[in-house]
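We were asked to recover a plausible sequence for a given structure. The inputs and outputs are reproduced exactly as logged, with field labels preserved.

PROBLEM: sequence recovery
POSITIONS: 98
GIVEN STRUCTURE:
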């Protein structure tokens, strides 16, 4: 998986709001605004990998992460069941959740 280089991104935007410990869940950054886009599924997976049960991770993420507003650059949290990848060896699309 490609990671977003936040230090490099700060050269283009004055303020980027990120969530500590969840860089692996970043899908991208809006090129016009600098708003960071996160995968909800990957955030939940990270919480589970840190020892939470699936139910606890979902509840924690819903209450403490997904529904917080911290200003105009509040991160956006996307459902990733529509995200696809191109397999470079076959040029076929595959669902990222498979």
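RECOVERED SEQUENCE:
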């Amino acid at each position: 998986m490609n990671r977003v280089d936040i230090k490099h991104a700060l050269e283009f935007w004055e303020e980027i709001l990120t969530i500590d410990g969840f860089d692996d869940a970043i899908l991208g950054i809006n090129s016009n605004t600098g708003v960071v886009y996160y995968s909800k599924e990957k955030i939940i997976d990270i919480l589970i990998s840190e020892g939470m049960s699936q139910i606890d991770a979902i509840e924690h993420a819903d209450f403490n992460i997904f529904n917080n507003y911290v200003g105009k650059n509040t991160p956006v949290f996307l459902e990733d069941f529509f995200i696809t990848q191109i397999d470079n060896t076959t040029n076929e699309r595959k669902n990222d959740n498979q």
